[in-house]
Design goal:
Elements (H helix, E strand, L loop, with lengths): L7 H14 L3 H6 L7 H18 L10 E2 L5 E2 L4
Antiparallel strand pairs: 1-2
Helix pairs in contact: 1-3
């Protein structure tokens, strides 16, 4: 993303993308609890989008998975 998520342009860019997958994101932002920041709602929606892509086999990953201290494979997907 070209702009930070806490800027007006960054929020607009993210909403533009997220609205394609989750129509009505502005309503979710306006109905959020006062203690929940707008960028946290956007982050949660982006994580949900990634989960959907993983389920459908469309997600990409940043690197080959590494094993954590419990032997679980960990990496970043998008």
């Amino acid at each position: 993303m070209a702009y930070r998520k806490k800027t007006a342009q960054g929020k607009a860019d993210r909403l533009g993308l997220l609205n394609r997958v989750f129509p009505g994101m502005e309503q979710h932002l306006s109905r959020r609890a006062q203690l929940v920041a707008e960028d946290d709602v956007l982050d949660a929606a982006a994580a949900a989008w990634t989960a959907l892509n993983m389920q459908d086999g469309r997600a990409e990953r940043v690197c080959e998975p590494e094993q954590d201290e419990n032997g679980l494979a960990v990496t970043i997907h998008y």
